[in-house]
Specification:
It contains 22 helices and 20 strands. The chain is an alpha/beta fold. A hairpin with a 2-residue loop joins β6 and β7.
Length: 671
Amino acid sequence: MSVYDHGFARVTGAVPVVSIADPATNAERTVALLRRAADDGAALVVFPELGLCGYSIDDLFHQDAVIDACLAGLATVVEASAGVRPLIAVGLPLVVGDGIYNCAAVVHDGEILGVVPKSYLPNYREFYEQRFFAAARDAPVATATVLGREVPFGADLIFEATDLAGFAVHVEICEDGWVPIPPSTWASLAGATVLVNLSGSPVTVGKEGYRKSLCQSHSARCVAAHVYVAAGFGESTTDLSWDGDALITENGTLLARSELFSMDEQTITADIDLDRLRQERMRMISLRDQVGDHADALKPLRRIRFALGPTDSVDDELRRQVARFPFVPADSADRDARCREVGNIQVQGLAARLRATGIDKIVIGVSGGLDSTLALLVAVDTFDRLGLSRENILAYTMPGFATGTATLRRAHVLMNTLGVTGAEIDIRPSCEQMLTDLGHPYADGEKVYDVTFENVQAGERTSHLFRLANHHGAIVLGTGDLSELALGWCTYGVGDQMSHYNVNSSVPKTLIQHLIRWMITTSAYAQETTDVLAEILDDVISPELVPAGDDGAIQSTEDTVGPYELHDFFLYHLTRFGYRPAKVAYLASAAWGDRERGAWSELIVTQRRNQYDPETIDRWLRVFLKRFMSNQFKRSAMPNGPKVGSGGSLSPRGDWRSPSDASSRAWLESF
């Protein structure tokens, strides 16, 4: 299979070294880069503005020798395109009627599919384009004769592949993308998913940062991919310099960028996710509303259809980074701000709930594990910001039949060092009474550790917490996380699924781990607290409901349901983008198949940097799909809690509405 089979399209930005006013040489260099991109499996290759002659030739644009040579150069490119896959956008001046236009010729498989003239001609500071060219609006025709063939001519063309779903390309030129409403905005509303900008763009200090912002924001606003290619080395430096900036962005994300100021030719390549764009547009009803508002203006846009050709020979090595931890910032530059933002969202949610209820106390169960630790730290921060005493945080650790001495000790250290009101309640007597009442074999001395045995303990803890809240005039603060809700790894009703308010309900396990790692680095807590946080991170994730076996091994959640780092990956891509399971597995292999590939947070120690083969990924993906679909009833009745991330809420009042009795068959049979 190739990347195209998974809903991607490979696109390339090509920056040749320019030979000023020498279209023959530039055509040869264009063809060489075209062939390189074609051999690499590209579906689209974009060249700079006026690349066949050079952007900086000024009045030479009006020389017939140059105009004729550009047409000859275009013929060379058209001839070279025969039998190769990519759609090509190449820049040149073209005479149409009485005017000369700054154009992009769009070429495929030996044919010119259409010609796009520049709409907006800059005529300020260093730019004098109105001296040389006519604008698209000045053209009295909708077709032009180029190399003996009549082809569509205008800024209203969308080039749409008939054999690659969602691959619809619009082309504009430099300044067109800098105006308040670029032509590509209208094209995106009309269905264009790949927006192309051929640019000259001489460089000045600070411009590269502005270009990046412009390209990213435009792709985000249009929910599209964007390929931007500026002129590079070889352009005239009589008065200006050129950095050869090329960028590929997708819905606000930078996928690839050229080496600035390179004196050599170069290409950049990325695989754009057509499925993602389709899914985002499908969900964004406000975008559809605007399409409806402007339908009369959009309908006249012309669609030029073409067949891209077979893509099965293209490799399946994905040309883009896939984050292992989609909920977690890998870049240390973003980490502090992102982690603080998560904390602020949780704190604000809890603070608002306390003020709304007029209650100034909470009850929380503290196990000495990850989830309750984060919830306790959020509670402490909230009470500090509200000016409430930490003693109003009533924290209880409730050992059961399998509670380890290490976790019990950690729970006490946390409660003591954080200055909350801590207490211990042994739930074993009440659990034993319930098991006796149920006639459970454990009450007769048998080592039967079934789901009833486990849920009796989970239920007793929750029952105690709610009655303690009644007794003290408090609310119960939930601690269960998003990953557990996705997998249904929680006890429904009178169990850890329920609380009065849950600050962790939108925070997945991998993000909780990351937040605690980050908290350790902030030096915000006493050393004894920090040491305990480090211990919690290093320990096995366990509900501690089943006693250790004869070998001393404690109950491990991940041995039962699978690695949380994979499940969080599956959760994000399934619910955020609605991908098919086969694509989720493909992306997981790209992210997790090789621990040496891609960025890791330096907070994750080497021995925790895992990798998984395709068979392991498929196995746990099937487990995830079965559990996710069969446990919707728990999410349908989940308590209130703040949404944290764009892909991180399963609340039926927020991101995720689903019937509790849906089958998982369609997903399981699709891969």
